[in-house]
Amino acid sequence: MSEKMMLVDELITQIKEGKYKPNEKLPSENELADQYRIPRMVVRKAYEQLQDLGFIFSKQGRGSYVQNRKQQIPLILTGDISFSEKMNELEYDFRSENICCEKIHFDSEVFHALKVNPQDEVYKISRLRIVDGCPIALHTSYAAKSVFPQIDRDGPGIKSIFRYYRTHGYKEFTSGQSQLSVVFPIEPERKILQCSSLIPLLLLESICMDKETGTVLEFSRIKYRSDCFTYLI
C-alpha cells in the first residue's frame, strides 16, 4: 500500500473513532509530514482524496476541516410512501425542486415498464431532493400521457409525484419490479448533487402501481448520494 493510501486509511479511522470532531481543524500538511515522516506532497494528495471522499473540506488559507457526516438519513426502499412524506415524517428540513419536465423519445426499457406502445407520449419529470440545504437525491419519474392526460401541462409544477397521483383518484400504491445498483456520478450529476466523482450513487429503478387497479403509474430512476443515507431494505 502506498504512503498516501496508508495515511488516508489512518485519518479515516481517526475521524470515525472521534479523534477529530465535525468541523474541527486537522493538522497542517507540515505537521502530518513531520509526524509520519513522509513528504508534504503525500499529505497534500491524501487530503485531496479525503476531500473527494467527503470526509473533509478546506478553507482557503486556513487549512482542512472535518466534514460533518452525522446526517445519515434512514432510507426505506419501498414504493408505498413518497420520498417527501418520508422526509416530513422524519422531521428533516426538506424541500424538493422540480428541475425538468420534458417529453422523451422512444425508450424500450421505459415504455415496456410503463406498458405503453411506441406511439404513446411519455414525460420525464425530475426533482432534486434537498435536506438541510444539501442536495441528497435526484428523482426522475416517467409517466404516460395515456394515464395522465395533462402531464405535459402539470409536469413542471410537480414536486411530489404521489400527491399528484392522489389528485387523479389513485390512493394506495405498491411497487412492481425493482432493481438496485451502484453507479458513479457523471459530470452533470456531480454538479447537481454537489458531490465528487468518488462518491458512489445508489440507483433504484422501480415501477409504481395503483394497488386497487394494477395500473402502472410510473417508472422511476432515483439516484441517492451514498454518503447521506443508511439503507433499510
Rg computed from alpha carbons, rounded to a whole number of angstroms: 22 Å
Helix and strand succession?
A: HHHEEEHEHEEHHEHEEE
The assigned structural class equals: alpha+beta
Overall pLDDT: 88
Order of strands, main sheet, comes to: 4-5-6-9-8-7
Poorly predicted sequence stretches spanning 5 or more consecutive residues? none
Helix content: 25-40%
Could you walk me through the main structural features you see in this protein, from its secondary elements to its overall organization?
- The structure is a single chain.
- With 233 residues, the chain is an alpha+beta fold.
- The chain has eight helices and ten strands.
- A six-stranded antiparallel β-sheet has the order 4-5-6-9-8-7. A two-stranded antiparallel sheet has the order 1-2.
- Helix 2 packs across helix 3 (40-52).
- The chain is elongated.
- The mean pLDDT is 88.
What's a concise summary of this model?
This protein has 233 residues and is of the alpha+beta class. The protein is built from eight helices and ten strands.
List the SSEs and their pairings.
Blueprint: H1 3-16, H2 29-36, H3 40-52, E1 56-59, E2 63-66, E3 73-76, H4 83-89, E4 94-103, H5 108-114, E5 122-131, E6 134-144, H6 151-154, H7 161-167, E7 173-183, H8 187-193, E8 201-210, E9 216-225, E10 229-232
Parallel strand pairs: 3-10
Antiparallel strand pairs: 1-2, 4-5, 5-6, 6-9, 7-8, 8-9
Helix pairs in contact: 1-3, 2-3
